[in-house]
Each structure stands twice: as C-alpha cells, then as structure tokens.
Automatic annotation (TrEMBL):
This is 2-amino-4-hydroxy-6-hydroxymethyldihydropteridine diphosphokinase. Gene3D superfamilies: 7,8-Dihydro-6-hydroxymethylpterin-pyrophosphokinase HPPK (3.30.70.560). InterPro entries: Hppk, Hppk_sf. Keywords: ATP-binding, Folate biosynthesis, Kinase, Nucleotide-binding, Transferase.
Length: 131
C-alpha cells in the first residue's frame, strides 16, 4: 500500500530529513513537495517545517502508525521541548485514487492551510478536497 504522510516539526528542529530517512527503512519513500516553512493559525509565519511524502508499506495501518510513533520518539518527541517531529497519515492510495485517512478527517487536517499548500505544491489538491 501507498500512504500519504504529513511530516511537521517546529522550525528550530531540523529533524524532517532524519524522519524521511527513518521512513525509508520501512519502504520506498517519495517526496511530493519541497519543505515549506509555515505558521500556525494566528501565529508567527515560519514557525513550522512541513513536508509531504508517500511511503510504500506492506504492513497494516496499525503497524505503520506504531512505526511512525517510534520514529517520533527516536527523534525526540516527548523528551525535547516543543515538537521535534510529527508524522501524520493523511491518505492511502487505492489504485490511483487517494482515500483520506479517517483519523486525518476527524482532525480536520485537510482544511489546514499548511496541508492545502503542500497538497497544491504536489498537484494533489483536487485528489484530496478540503471537505
């Protein structure tokens, strides 16, 4: 299966490259858009680094979520102040169609401006509408 992942970190942490490398140990990684510096709603611009990648992973969703949480911990999440890395599953590919992940829908990921920007950069904005 192919999964679309959103990677994020506070701008002061340069951990996204290490996260991509760690994901590469799980399967083939494809970067869909260049890293973007973004801000939070009502916050300072450039507070966060974000990347959009896809990962081919043969295991079930739950195993991938566990691996992503392990990578987050390995890169300092829970030990360092702030958010050194966050990996969220956005969607799963069924053929050429992306199906939004229910957890991402529940978190309203697809209406977030930084997610919309990355999807647009990758040419995937129409494939995953902000509904």
């Amino acid at each position: 299966m192919r999964w679309l992942l959103l990677l994020g970190a506070q701008a002061r942490y340069d951990t996204l490259g290490a996260a991509v490398d760690a994901l590469g140990a799980l399967g083939e990684v494809h970067e869909h858009a260049a890293e973007r510096l973004t801000g939070s709603a009502g916050g300072e611009p450039g507070q966060y680094r974000n990347r959009l990648v896809s990962l081919r992973h043969a295991g079930p969703r739950e195993a991938l979520v566990a691996e992503c949480k392990r990578i987050e911990r390995d890169l300092g999440r829970g030990r360092l102040d702030g958010m050194p890395v966050d990996i969220d599953l956005l969607a799963c590919a069924h053929g050429n169609d992306w199906q939004p992940d229910p957890h991402a829908v529940a978190k309203r990921e697809f209406v977030m401006p930084h997610v919309r920007l990355l999807l647009a950069d990758a040419g995937l904005e129409a494939a995953l509408p902000a509904a």
